Amino acid sequence: MKIFSAFLATETNTSGVVPTGSVDFEARGFFRGDASLRNPSGFGASHALLRQLAAADGHTIVESLTAHAQPSGITLRSVYEQYRDWILEDLKAAMPLQGVILIMHGAMVAEGYDDCEGDTIQKVRDLVGPGVPIGVELDLHCHFSEQMRTQADVVIAYKEYPHTDTMERLEELYRLVVRQAEGSIRPVTAVHDLRMIGLWHTTQEPMRSFVDRMQSLEGKDGILSVSLGHGFPWGDTPDTGAKLWVVADSELAGAQALADQLGREFWELRHQTWQPPLSIAATIEEIRRAPEGPIVLADVADNPGGGAMSDSTFILQGLLEAGVHDAVLGVYWDLGAVSLCQSAGVGARLKLRIGGKCGPKSGDPVDLQVTVKAIVPDHFNHGLGFRWSFGTGVWVQTDQGMDIALCTSRGQVLSCEAFENLGIPLAGRKVIVVKSTQHFHAAFAPMARQVLYVGAPGSITQNFAEMSFTRRDNRFWPRVEDPRR
User: Fold this and answer.
1) Are residue 357 and residue 429 in the same domain, yes or no?
2) Distance from CA of residue 480 to its chain's centroid?
3) In this structure, are 46 and 188 located in the same domain?
4) I need a labelling partner for 361 at 20 to 30 A (CA). Which of 53, 142, 181, 299 fits?
5) Are both 51 and 170 inside the same structural domain?
6) What are the tens digits of pLDDT across the range 159-197?
7) How much is the average pLDDT of 288-294?
């Protein structure tokens, strides 16, 4: 059996100030046909897993594009079309095929395309015809569209937030595509639109139990897969919002009944599954009350993983004004500050202007007297199954002992490596501030005495009740208490 695979993904913040271009994809490593060999610990890990699974079954993977960009603004039309067309060229060359696996995000928007994934899947379907199974893996922060549902045979989203199950879901997808190609199943998909906008942490109850319940239904009574697409609130598209879908073997009515049942159950949990972030003032009070740390603060509105610039200074300013200096903060995207530190060299003491470079949502720059403690040309951290580069990383320390991590390539804090690879010690610290919304949790929660989500100003605010969209209607919870009326 010959199976084609391709990986094209980014998450689009449609109000992002910086468009996503080819340079952004190339910064993460761009490969055509050999990512599994050249980048097996990076984004090539997905193709490497598929090759391993296929080899064990006596099948062959034909590997195409691997391209991933850090979330940012709308992708340039020419870039998306070129990457899509390269996938299609490789697909034509590989035919005939018995299956197709597409690894995507689900919230990629380009100029002229609200649904890049749906467009790509449609064009793949046009080439391979109705008899070849198409399987798609999505991030759970996806805009699940009708085009995706009708043109793909199996669509599976991650179940966990943070996304600790990317490879497990890919293996699940592979197994279902193979089973369909062998003729042992005939997948059909039913969807329930939850009419909700929000974020739901699967590390907390009752979300933890809801995800476990979804998973417990799979493999029984013809149910092949259950996915909850949380949606990406900062992407304005006609399909933005949470949706739940069920993939079943042949029985569409049964799939729809289960999707609707689970959708109603999730709706009933809406007031229990969401807690708004704390203000900076309330966070400072929590820090003062805590006898010791570490207290991990998530700077949720400046998460580069959601398209933010990762240079806002609001929490830094709050800590300084409160006299909280036993703190580690990062990772700030600041090309100018890094360049000055490189010029000065390790050990140099200088006055450095940090952050606040990208507009009002970044706050004001902060001037600090610092010592350059380390410069790391290839700074990185691991998470979500991949290796993520920060470009050049720099550790600076204030005269009062506050440690700040800087970088030249925007990246979300996913693991302790974001600080420790620069030499910044975390043990015994009072406060650790991470520019991340939730993906930090898997690595930092075990070491934290307390985890606080901080609602500082920023470009990915979590004030969902006041959000307004132009590409979809504005009848959604929590903006409207009962959007179905």
Assistant:
1) yes
2) 27
3) yes
4) 142
5) yes
6) 999 999 999 999 999 999 999 999 999 999 999 999 999
7) 93
Q: DSSP alpha helices (H): ranges in 356-453?
A: 417-420, 441-444
Strands across the sheet containing 223-229: 187-193, 243-249, 223-229
Q: Which residue has the tokens 């470079």?
A: 357
Residue 450, Cα to own-chain centre: how many angstroms?
23
Amino acid identity of 417? E
Question: Domain check: are 253 and 399 in the same one?
Answer: no
Q: What is the pLDDT of residues 274-285, one digit of tens each?
A: 888 999 999 999
Whether the upstream peptide bond of residue 277 has omega within 30° of 0, thus cis, is: no
Chain centroid, CA 462 distance in Å: 16
Structure tokens at 49: 């897993």
Q: How big is the chain, counted in residues?
A: 485
Q: What's the angle, vertex CA 223, arms to CA 218 and CA 226, rounded to 5?
A: 60
Locus of tokens 């002229």: 112
Q: How many domains does the chain divide into?
A: 2
Spatial contact of 110 and 80, defined as CB atoms under 8 Å apart: yes
User: If DSSP codes are grouped into helix, strand and coil, which group holds residue 238?
Assistant: coil
Which secondary structure element, helix H or strand E, spans residue 173, and what is its range?
Answer: helix 166-182
Domain boundaries, position 9: 2-268
Closest listed residue to residue 172, CA positions, set 88, 232, 118, 103? 103
Place of tokens 């933010």: 308
Are 310 and 362 in the same domain?
Answer: yes
Residue 284 CA, chain-centre distance (Å), reads: 28
What residues have CB less than 8 Å from 86, skipping those under 6 apart?
Answer: 32, 64, 65
Q: How far apart are CA 102 and CA 104, in angstroms?
A: 6
Q: Is residue 261 part of a domain?
A: yes
Query: Residue 448: inside a domain, yes or no?
Result: yes
284 and 264 housed in the same domain: no
Residues 249 and 380 placed together within one structural domain of the fold:
no
pTM of structure = 0.92
Question: CA 272, CA 183: separation in Å to the nearest integer?
Answer: 42
Considering the domain architecture, whether residues 46 and 111 belong to the same structural domain is answered as: yes
User: Quick check: is 227 in a domain?
Assistant: yes
